Amino acid sequence: MKVGVVTFPGSLDDRDAARAVRAAGGQAISLWHGDEDLQSVDAVILPGGFSYGDYLRCGAISRFAPVMTSIIERAKTGMPLLGICNGFQILCESHLLPGALTRNKDLHFLCTPQRIAIENTNTAWTSNFEGGQEIVIPLKNGEGSFQCDDKTLTQLESEGQIVARYVGKNPNGSRNLIAGISNAKGNIVGLMPHPEHAIDSLTGPTADGLAFFTSALSSMVK
Amino acid sequence: MAKIIVDVMLKPEILDPQGQAVGAALPRLGFTFAKSVRQGKRFEIEVEGEPTPAQLAEVAKAAETLLANPVIETFTVRVEK
């Protein structure tokens, strides 16, 4: 199974995302922001970082990168697509996911192991978790506060599109403690915390994040 | 040469922690006039000659596509004399 990891100018976590794919048993393929060719990958990860320096708004310029044209097209027909942190911001700017990520409520850049609960295990990226399972993975962002209008929030809640929620104190002011959401089909997931930094206990706080990547690989085998 | 101004503001219902931080700093400096502060962005776009209605419509389209995120922001387009 080939999983593409996109590198934009300013991406930081592309190498860790590729490493996580390999640890899960997949083949990681590097994709370049300026190249529309997805090299026949089966899934794509948009990694964390500060693509295009976060100029204008986080993810606003990356959304129009040539590689995104192909990714948006494939994702709309069901290709598994995961956006982590800056990747989540790009997914919202691309309107592949509803809502937007805004400045953390207290304006601080956060970098901390964060407990989250996996609420929806019917997505391409969470099928190897148990419903309600609590995990700890790093959260590191300055603009991670998930915001949307009331109608969207009601829809996300009622359709089970909330993939993960922060447990305990709200770290950044996200509505309803939202840490991650999916589209209605469940192939596109956006996550603010970083599973790719928690795939083994040597380099991460836990190995809890690995299951996001094994989930995608098993969903593609089905 | 004319200047087209696009002002982008967060929608009123969207939390603006940057504006709040500025609002909290003002009284510390002795400026006590502000009931609240909201922070936005201003784009100054230079064009040749007097902008036509078609050009302004195009700018509005660009503002909706790139300069503002309509999910959380509103924008206005005007010409500066």
Automatic annotation (TrEMBL), chain A:
A biological process from GO: 'de novo' IMP biosynthetic process
Keywords: ATP-binding, Cytoplasm, Glutamine amidotransferase, Hydrolase, Ligase, Nucleotide-binding, Purine biosynthesis
UniProt xrefs under InterPro entries: Class_I_gatase-like, PRibForGlyAmidine_synth_PurQ
Pfam families (alphabetical): GATase_5 (PF13507)
Molecular function via GO: ATP binding; hydrolase activity; phosphoribosylformylglycinamidine synthase activity
PANTHER family recorded: PHOSPHORIBOSYLFORMYLGLYCINAMIDINE SYNTHASE SUBUNIT PURQ
Name of the protein this chain belongs to: Unannotated protein
Species annotation: freshwater metagenome
UniProtKB/TrEMBL annotation, chain B:
ATP-binding recorded as keyword: yes
GO biological process: purine nucleotide biosynthetic process
Keywords assigned by UniProt, alphabetized: ATP-binding, Cytoplasm, Ligase, Nucleotide-binding, Purine biosynthesis
Single GO molecular function: ATP binding
SUPFAM superfamilies found in the cross-reference section: PurS-like
Keyword Nucleotide-binding listed: yes
InterPro entries in alphabetical order: PurS, PurS-like_sf
Protein name per Swiss-Prot or TrEMBL: Unannotated protein
Organism encoding this protein: freshwater metagenome
